[in-house]
Sequence to fold (292 residues):
Amino acid sequence: MKRLAGDSAAGREKILLPYTSRSGIEYAENFTYVATCVTSGGSQADFGDLFATGCDCEKECFDGCICGRDQHGLAHYHPVTRRLRTSRCSYVVRECGAGCSCASDCSSRLVQHGITIPLQLYQVEGKGWAVRCASDLPEGTFVCEYAGELLSTVESRARFVEYDRKGSNFLLVLREVMGSGSASLRINIDATYYGNAARFINHSCDGGNLQIELVRIGSNPLPRVAFFTSRGVPAYSELTFAYGDIPVPNVHKAHQSSNENGETNNTAGLSHAVCKCGTPACSGWLPRDESI
Ligand SMILES: [Zn+2]
Ligand SMILES: [Zn+2]
Ligand SMILES: [Zn+2]
Fold:
């Protein structure tokens, strides 16, 4: 039986993640759906919060809470709308964690609760699978985390070479530059074998309508990688972001083709994937970062 419609998340998200094939091309379930990152090989990543410290707010956190304050003393998420303040300086976003005395539905806890908006997978001519939302999304809405296997840098470099040859790559590399400016934490997430809705989000040369943020939950040293809308997005518009090295203060990211159509071109022995974003800013090729 052909799988042309169903729940892509296979019950692993709190809400359904429906997919619908319009072209009659079967949904290729060639990866394991995970709601959050796993360690290499698929076991649950330990996001534990040992020696947890946190705020002593009662029930709800407001501006002034020690968790997630920006340079103006404002909470990273607006306490009423629960949306990211996209105007803030690009610090790592902080959420309340296990050591905080506030309630689990505090406005400073979004990414840790997973996807709550009605995302859908659908097919776009020439691009393959894509992601959209069935409701309007105001600027700063949390969309989803980028889930996959957390890899060591050695392993991610080896896989990059392999994927580069195949012309398909779900490897996302981010660098969090520390305060000193000289040290950085490198985060390698591969959504090839384990992933979530984010692995289907396509690239757009104009920067798209999503922005990536690193989100640290409680005192856990390892941040999550999360997508928020960078502007208002009408219902049923494709959700996209810029894979390459567009300026994101404090964050360096690289990601390559996730195009299932696998169109590639050989230039100087290097495989380059064709970009189908269709925006006036389109360069014709998906960005690739050989430095990863
Ligand atoms: Zn608080
Ligand atoms: Zn809180
Ligand atoms: Zn807190």
